[in-house]
Amino acid sequence: MQVVLIKEDKYTYDIHSLYKAFYPTEDVKVILENDLDKIDEVKRLNSDITVSSVDVSVSKNELKKSIYLDLSAKTGKNLPWGNLTGIRPTRIVMNLIEEEKSDDEIVQYMKDTYCVSDEKIALSLKIAHREKEILKCIDYKNGYSLYLGIPFCPTTCLYCSFTSYPIGAFSNIVDDYITCLEKEIDYVAENFKDKTLDTVYIGGGTPTTLEPHQLERLIGYLKSKLDFSKVKEFTVESGRPDSITRDKLKTMKKMGVTRISVNPQTMRDETLKLIGRRHTVSQLIDAYNMAREEGFDNINMDIILGLPGEGASDVAYTMEEIKKLDPDDLTVHSLAIKRGSKLAEIMELAKHRGKESASGSFDDNKDILDDIKNTEEMMEIALKGARDMGLEPYYLYRQKNISGNFENTGYARKGKAGIYNILINEEVQSIVALGAGTVTKRVYGYDGRIERCDNVKDVKLYMEQIDEMIDRKRKLFL
Ligand code: SF4
Prior knowledge:
The protein is an alpha/beta fold. It is about 45% helix and about 15% strand. The strands form four sheets. The protein has a nine-stranded mixed beta sheet with strand order 12-13-11-10-9-8-7-4-14, sandwiched between helices. A three-stranded parallel beta sheet has the order 2-1-3, with helices on both faces. Strands 5-6 form a two-stranded parallel sheet. The protein is globular. Iron/sulfur cluster (SF4) binds near residues 157, 205 and 239.
């Protein structure tokens, strides 16, 4: 365990995140140095402790840089994103571009202030310039985007921390759930009639767990209430191939959906089984081909690097198989161990019980902790694979506890980049979010201030409290 002592209660989150980035498998505690009881308790409960002190009297940037240089010297590691702990590194670069700094000045600043590697600086610059170019085509400052969450999935994936209920056990509430979404749509129709709707994104969960008539009902209602004439992009995540049917694709096409995602995560059947996705690679290929046959010309695919048991050769295999399908957009995720996921639970238990496995999905002899890794080489293979398909990076974000301390990157063909992804990631536009577990964000254009309100996660509570959910939005947009 790493114990970091501080004099004042300041920058705790940043200190914790940086230590965790250098010591991903160790517990990290940041404690006030005069909290002797807490220090004694930690010492009593843990035998293997390394204690260090940091000086929080300096500025945040100075503090993070000094911790980074110190830990880098101690561990011999350089982190690709240096001491950046935030999830939106491209935002910093965007702001510098807006301040009319030259590329050379930005490179120097990112190096000097955050110790970011040359590769990641080049990547952020490229993405920030591309994002600015893509956003030029919409008057995003005066518009808004809409997100609808469908919190049902065929099964729950091992790494999932989203709001997701197995459709099998919840199919009897789906119609009532749609009725609640319709109430929220009524609120949007009434309160945003003077604003331009730029993009619509139905995500989840897995929206394609809805039956064709339910999809038609929901999208039909949306289009009857809101002005779609200026909508630049209408995405429906169809992530799980085991939820896709020709009828659903036909319905979505007929209703004007312009972009879908069909997500493999990996092209290895053994891994799919291990991560609880319960679909096969051949189902994925069939669903993808069906979507092409039905005329979808903007299909996104998601893959995850660092899945249990996978190494560089598996990533290379996945990329070769994806190349044969030739998607328009590819999002490369680095596995993140998210709180609330089964994976986090298993890792926690494994830590406490040694090699004992906590899930029926795993071979009892497998030590999952040793089986999860993401490397520079794997990132390179994915990047090269995307480039071979003519896809270029267009958005990027990081997550807490992300494998290898890397990032998630979206690549797309020219003209196929997901505009919603940029809007939400760069936080440049208000996003009104409907459905259980969604978060609405109000972006105040003039001073960059952002305020949020959330809908409760529990689907039944959401339905019971639908009026309160709408009221929260009313207050946010007063
Ligand atoms: S498909 Fe997505 S939302 Fe559904 S369980 Fe898997 S990761 Fe979670």
